[in-house]
Each structure stands twice: as structure tokens, then as C-alpha cells.
Amino acid sequence: MAKWNYDATDVKVIADNEPMYGYQPGDMVSGERANNTEDYDVDAQGWGVFSTNNDIHGTITINLSAGSPANLKLMALANAHKEFTLSVTTPHERVYSNQAKIQKVPSFGAGTKTGVKAWVILCIDYNDEMNE
Asked: 2, 10, 69, 81: least buried by Cβ within 10 Å?
């Protein structure tokens, strides 16, 4: 298997068909499913059964600089309560949702630095795919 190299400039975040840019230093974007996809029940005698949970909702957080023009797009989506598509692509992974909405407008702050706008996006269909 070939070694996977990483370059942050290869990461693409697209919300409602518009590229996001102007990230905060550190993590640009992160996400996770809300539930385990597999679970089990075991009785007192040790008999068990696996269960598949088909609820695949999750969240994706986009960390933008407060000075990023991309905040305007996300604010417009939040104010319109609009459902939209969201895609995060790296050279070896793609996380996406066809049914996403802004959970809430990020908190406000002003100080010696620009600050961060952490946009938490709810995804009814949180999908994660990896490739070579």
C-alpha cells in the first residue's frame, strides 16, 4: 500500500455549491456521526445479539476566520433555514451530506485577533467514504 501524504491545500469544502475558504489556524473542518452504526445486547447468561443502527445523522464543523468572506454564505443559509448539500474532500476521503442545515449561528467575539466562527452543521445523512 502506498503511503498517503497530506497537504491542507488539497482539502475542499463545498457548501450549497460554493467553496469555503478563509479558515482559522489549526483544524479547518471536522465531523462525526452521532451514533454507533453497530451495537449489541447481552443477557445475564452471556447470550447476545448484534443490532444495526440505520440512523446515520451527524455533524460537520467548519472553523472559519471571523474575517472570512465565506461566513456570508453560511449566515445566509442559516437565516433562510435552508437545507443544502455539503461536501468535504481530501485526496483519500470524502465526507458529505445531501441534507444539511446550520445548527445555530456561531458565537460572536472581538479582541486582539480576528477570532473564529465555528459553524456546526447538522447532517441527516452523514456519509464517509475512503479511497486509494
From this structure: 2
Name, in order, each residue with C-beta under 8 angstroms of 38's C-beta and a sequence gap of 6 or more: 50, 51, 52, 53
Partners of 40 in the β-ladder: 50
Rounded Cα distance between 95 and 127, Å, is 6
- Does residue 52 register a pLDDT over 90? yes
Each residue of 6-19: pLDDT tens digit? 899 999 999 999 99
* Alpha carbons 49 and 41: distance in angstroms, whole number: 6
pLDDT tens digits, 23-38: 999 999 999 999 999 9
Q: What is the pLDDT of residues 75-125, one digit of tens each?
A: 999 999 999 999 999 999 999 999 999 999 999 988 888 889 999 999 999
